[in-house]
Amino acid sequence: MSVGILERLAKGPVVGDGSMVFTLEKRGYALAGPWTTEAVVEYPEAVLQLHREFVRAGADVLQTATFFSSDSKLTTGKRDYTSKEINDAACMLARKAADENACLVCGSISPAVPLDSGRKNQHLLAAEFTKQCNVYREHRMDLVTCEFFNNIEEVEICAVEMKKLNIPVSLSMRLGPGGDEKGVSVEECAVRMAKTGADMIGTQCGYDINTALNVMSRFKSALQEADLRPFLSCQPQGMLCPEVEQSPAGYIALQEFPFAVEPRIITRIEAHQFARKAYELGVNYIGGCCGFESHHIRSIAQELQSERGIVPPVADKAVPFGGDALKLSTVNEFHNGNRSTREYWYNINKGSGRPYQSALTEAAMQTGYPGRMYLQ
Ligand SMILES: [Zn+2]
Q1: Do 361 and 280 share a structural domain?
Q2: Which of 286, 304, 321 delimits the end of a domain?
């Protein structure tokens, strides 16, 4: 019997997993646009392999590949699937990979029917969440979470359904400094999420590591002021995009989304720095979303290895910053550098290899983005 999420969170930082459907799309197993996960039925081996990569990297928890897996969103693929079919298959695949290293499985719910003004269709939205929750009950999920929501009212409706499961509940929102899509502030979103009685609250997707840490520090202050103490989670997306942090759409507002965002993907060194900053801020659950690949999750697990007292399975082939293995490499002959130290990797100026490409998009340059830098 593996240790439950609340016990793990109480003991020290927990490592989440990374990108599922965004990575499956790059690998040829999901369609950009709908971003649904028919792959759990059509290409189960591909989904299982991706889960296994996160387990090997050191993730403690695997989220089900159930993005947009409500009946209202599942209308593409080789044929139409029901929410139950996709959620059933996703639960089984995540559990299979999780059991290989005593990891936990988290059932994930994402936005379904947009909530209209006056909450007239609230029951439709709740019904979609209930269907997914029923599958998570059958499959005995270790916890449930919500992802990609940027409307606090929808999160509150989802929380009501999730709490009926009587398992730990995590709520996360796609929140930039400007608050939710209706302009509800970061602070109010944090307090309202905590007041649902959720065990853990945080941010996920939409915004980059720097923006996410900034928002999480505002969560912390708001919660302290309200005397609320849920665990905190942070799972940002893995592309640097400071110029869209004020947009409610976040990284989707980038003109390069989704097929030309690769130059913005964080390095594994930045994933180390992110993990350290998140830990120092008091974030209890540290993972990633779109763009966070297994090597980024490995960096989080390795950065916090001594604090957690857990060596990730990948350690037989990967030592933080290369260690003694990299000392043997011919790369050390160049620039007289010892490339197997943290200092080397933190201090070099990391070029993009694109001399004629601007650091930020033209539109952002014109709006006068102040050029803030965080992880320096
Ligand atoms: Zn994402």
Answers
A1: no
A2: 321
Task: Please state which of the ranges 86-100, 135-149, 242-256, 327-341 shows the lowest mean pLDDT.
Answer: 327-341
Question: Within a domain: residue 137?
Answer: yes
Half-sphere exposure of 7 (CA within 13 A, CB side): 6
CA 204–ligand 1 middle distance (angstroms): 7
Which pTM does this prediction carry? 0.94
Is 284 inside a domain boundary? yes
* For range 72-98, the mean pLDDT: 87
Residue range 141-200, pLDDT digits in tens? 999 999 999 999 999 999 999 999 999 999 999 999 999 999 999 999 999 999 999 999
User: Which domain does 360 fall in, by range?
Assistant: 323-366
d(CA 191, CA 183): 15
Sequence-ordered list of residues with C-beta below 8 angstroms from that of 96, at least 6 positions apart, any chain: 48, 51
Per-residue model confidence (pLDDT) at position 363: 57
pLDDT above 70: percentage of residues in the chain: 93
Q: Cα–Cα distance between 300 and 119 in angstroms, integer?
A: 40
Q: In angstroms, what is the span from residue 110 Cα to ligand 1's centroid?
A: 11
The alpha carbon of 324 and the centre of ligand 1 are apart by a number of angstroms equal to 35
For residues 313 and 361, membership in a common domain is answered with: no
Same domain, 278 and 214: yes
Burial 330-345 (b: 16+ CB within 10 A, else e): eebeeeeeebbeeebb
Q: Ligand 1 centre and the CA of 174: distance in Å?
A: 9
297 CA from centroid of ligand 1 (Å):
14
For residues 67 and 83, what is the distance between their CA atoms, to the nearest angstrom?
11
How many helices (H) and strands (E) the chain has is answered by 15, 8
CA 162–ligand 1 middle distance (angstroms): 21
pLDDT per residue over 296-334, tens digit each? 999 999 999 999 999 999 999 998 888 888 877 777 676
> Is 279 a domain residue?
yes
Question: Would you say residue 375 lies in a domain?
Answer: no
